[in-house]
Write a structure and sequence with these properties.
ABC transporter involved in vitamin B12 uptake, BtuC; single chain
Length: 311
């Protein structure tokens, strides 16, 4: 039982990153009723941008670690925002008035294009990792509070994630563009008749969602240090999609709650491994699919319901 609080904190950190990715899924679905299967690959691109910024484009010896993390975060968010806008403009907008199946197949095609096209661009052999080199002794310094250990890097990830979520909530609920976004989510055609520039709102939605995915990719690669490949975002993207469905696809608070539940569920599988004789850690990814099946059986609309206009 002594490990339970520690695993809960670890799960919240992982769940916060899932929540950032899930927000992109849920925002795009809320506005376009489109499941953007390329979203996990945008997350992958964010991790690669962070890698190149930290390992090749900046001299880490002359930049303070906090400043380096800030540059990595901004670069990943800006790069992924531009990529998301490009995907929307070239791949999705021309098909907006076609069947949803056509757009869905296009989303899968864009995902494969980013994954296999990335093999030509990034040429990762062996797969690079940025965690140890970027974090260094400063960000790896550990603190203990009530028996829970956290390093400075984990604290930074949690704080930045919370700030981004608060900023998004303020944007959606308190700004004119956010109100227009909710209007488009409620009724696409009526919003256009009322003078809302629908194309602009859709572009902004992709921009914000992709930027959040880039932030998640940067922070996950830095905090956990998983070696990068062009399939880096495949499984996190699936889990984030499940988190969005869990909370209620199209519901922003639901995406956050779903992401946290997913992260904590994985951590609980790791914690349960301490009490059994066989290895459970290899099954932690299966927890996401067990949760998805359970939710679809008993509450298909998700925990918070689906309509984005309620946000």
């Amino acid at each position: 039982m002594d490990q339970l609080p520690q695993q809960l904190v670890n799960g919240i950190q992982l769940g916060a990153i899932y929540a950032l990715i899930a927000l992109g899924y849920t925002m795009v679905y809320g506005v376009l009723r489109l499941i953007n299967f390329a979203h996990g690959d945008v997350y992958m691109v964010g991790a690669y941008i962070a890698y190149y910024v930290s390992m090749q484009w900046i001299d880490r010896d002359v930049v303070h670690p906090y400043m380096l993390l800030a540059i990595m975060l901004i670069s990943a968010m800006v790069g992924c925002a531009l990529l998301g806008m490009l995907i929307e403009r070239l791949a999705y907008r021309p098909l907006r008035h076609f069947s949803r199946m056509s757009v869905l197949i296009t989303a899968i095609g864009v995902s494969l294009l980013l994954e296999y096209g990335g093999l030509l661009i990034f040429k990762t052999a062996p797969p690079p990792s940025i965690a140890e080199d970027v974090r260094g002794p400063f960000l790896q310094e550990r603190f203990e509070v009530a028996g829970i250990f956290m390093d400075r890097g984990q604290i930074v990830v949690l704080v930045v994630t919370l700030v981004l979520m608060v900023l998004l909530w303020h944007f959606v609920t308190r700004t004119q563009t956010g109100r227009a976004m909710r209007a488009v989510a409620q009724d696409f055609d009526t919003a256009a008749l009322m003078g809302v520039d629908v194309n602009k709102i859709v572009t902004i939605t992709f921009l914000i969602g992709s930027a959040l995915a880039g932030a998640g990719g940067m922070m996950n690669a830095t905090a956990l240090g998983t070696p990068l490949t062009t399939f880096y975002g495949l499984l996190p993207g699936v889990k984030a999609f499940i988190a969005a469905v869990l909370g209620g696809i199209g519901n922003i608070p639901g995406a956050v709650a779903g992401g946290l539940i997913m992260g904590v569920a994985e951590a609980m599988v790791i914690w349960a491994d301490l009490f059994v004789e066989f290895d459970l850690t290899g099954y932690k990814d299966a927890a996401a699919f067990v949760i998805l099946i359970t939710i679809l059986i008993f509450r298909p609309g998700g925990l918070f319901g689906s309509p984005m206009e309620k946000v």
